[in-house]
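Protocol step 4 of 6: structure prediction from sequence.
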Amino acid sequence: MILRGPPPLTLLQTGRSPVHDASQTFSSARRPQVTAFAIRRGVAGDVAQLAPLFDAYRVFYQQPSDVDAAATFIRERIERDESVVFVAEDPDGILLGFVQLFQTWASTTTPPGRLWLLEDLYVGEPARRRGVGRALMERAERMALETGAVGLMLSTGIDNLRAHRLYESMAYRRLTRYFTYTRMLI
């Protein structure tokens, strides 16, 4: 589990994310040159493009591929307003990646308050190392601040070193005082 609290953040502007040119955010020595993309809130009309990305994310975590189930899940979360999904979209309207967040509460922080669980972050292979994941994370942080949250929480695979580097570069810290337990009921 990794937590991110409310210290000063480098965030995108308020409102709908502008077309983002990562060459303005990252030095060319650190990141390859990127084409423009926008970060915006995902809507039900995005499901046809979101489903294959969400399915690929699930396959990455050793789940069987099922694009139809992925489409149903993501559509229901968006339509029922049970999660917040942001998408990265290129100028041609192609979705490059997404982040999905669920609201929860932090009862042991001072003060207690809203906490966003960053449950899913995925960038399609062709768009990786172009600043898309970082821009999605920045948008999630901005939304957390806009909603008065005390922080963001996420977890990732122990062997997902690329994700570790991203999170740590953004001042997320790995918790070592807690174990996470799960009991599946189905």
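Step 5 (inspection) to follow. The two ends are 23 Å apart (CA to CA).
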